[in-house]
Structures are given as C-alpha cells and as structure tokens.
Design brief:
Its main location: membrane. By secondary structure, the chain is α+β, with helices and mostly antiparallel strands. The protein has two domains: about 190 residues, no CATH class; about 70 residues, Alpha-Beta Plaits (2-Layer Sandwich). The chain is built from ten helices and four strands; from the N terminus they run H-H-H-H-H-H-H-H-E-H-E-E-H-E.
Length: about 290
Amino acid sequence: MVKLIWEIAGVSAGVLLTALGLDLFLIPNKIAAGGVSGIATILHYLLNVPVGAAMLALNVPLFIMGIYRLGLRFGFRSLYGTVALSLAVDLMAPFLPVPTRDLLLASLFGGVMVGLGLGLVFKYRGTTGGTDLAAAILRTYTGVNIGQLLFLVDGAVVLAAGMTFSSAELAMYALITIFVTAWLIDMVQEGFSYAKAFFIISDRPAEIAAAIVKGLNRGATVWPARGVYTGAEREVLLSVVNRSEITRLKDIIYGVDPRAFVILADVHEVLGEGFKEYKQRGDGNG
C-alpha cells in the first residue's frame, strides 16, 4: 500500500507539472504539440470547449478500445493520470497568468514543463492516455513500431493545427515543443549522465584490469573480440566509473599501454555493486 501511495504521489506531481506547462505556455499561445492535448487545443479554439473536458472526451473511447484490444493491463494509475490531468488543466486555467506571448519561449518552457511532468508520470508507472495508448491500439492492427506510429499521429496533429490556425510558424514551434518534451521525458526516466563507460581495446588487457582494480578499486568485464581489419584476436575491457574518476582511469590505461584504443560513452544509470541499488516499487495495479 505504501508503494502504491508513493507511485500515486509521483503521478500526481507529474500531472501537475504537465497541466502547468499546458495552461501557462502552450494552450494560450495556440501551440498544439501533438497528442490528445494538441487535438483538444484545436477544438478549444474552434468550438470554445474546455481543453481538459475535450481531453477526457477523447480519451474515453481510447480507453474503451484499449481494454478491448489490450486488456486491463493499464491499471488504476493510468486511469487516474488521465482523469487527473483533464481536471487539473481546466481547474487551474482560470487562475493562471500567461507569462509570455513569445512563441519561442512558450514552446521551449512549455516543452520543458510537459516533458518533466510526463517523465514523472511514466517513471511512476502511470500514463495520461492520449496518443501513446492510441499508438499501442493501432499496433495491434498494423504491427508497426509504436515509436513510428507516435511520430505519425503527432505529426498529423501538428499539421492539422497549422492548417486550422493558418500558421506554418505555429506548427514549427509545436515541433520544437515535441522534441524538447521527448528529450525531457527520457532525461527524467534515465537520469543525467553521471558516469562513463570505458571500452578498452589493448594487447595488455590483464595488466590494465589489474591496475584498474588496484588503482580505482573498480571492477572490469572482459570478453573476446576479433579485429575485422587485422583479423587479430583480442580482448575488450569494459569498466564503468564516476565522472571524478575519468582522468585517473585514462592515466591508468595509458600508463600500462600507450597504444590502447579507448571508447568513452555516457552512462545515465548504473545499478549494482559500487553504484546505486535498484529499489523496486512493486507491480500492483491498485
């Protein structure tokens, strides 16, 4: 029960941020950045209907179809997130100012807030319905990748908004919002890049591995590999370190083998010994 309460609190915080991004920046500036919220924004200006009510009305048939095609796997958190977002958008709108009419600022700040909000919703295992549910339903009919379907659906909404508002600029600003939102969603779920993965190709892997253990008290993983150009059999070392250890590891590697070939890659999350533990929140649907 405690885990469920924690998850509902996380979904609630995400819903609040998402609603603020919509009410403060996107809806007042006619930026329909894809999804059900974008369609609802178009309907708001065409028919003068509340955005939240339109979102809820659009999501009801999606949920019915989702249950029919996908079963009840979406659970309580998804229903809660969908209804809560619709209510929050309409309840807060009359009391919030419009901070800017600059479309670039609105698209950027709106994208940031909505991205952070949806990232939290997804991180705590909820959804807000919308095009992610629509894409999952369409996939059962077409078999096309969900990411591609989301892109097509959101692109269609942006195109419709540009035609409705007779403004190519609004459509372009909406695209900026979509890209910012997607980036923030990934960042919230994956975290900031706080570590580096070293892929080390060397003729002296055992010595480098021993030096890593001794010098940094870090481990390493080794696996066999073969160079395509030379055909030579070698071993590749993988070692993950914190940012503060990057220079020290470079010194260790090149102190052992000045001819080593090293690839550095960003790591957003590391779970396990020497880093952080994964805390499971439970999988109940409530």
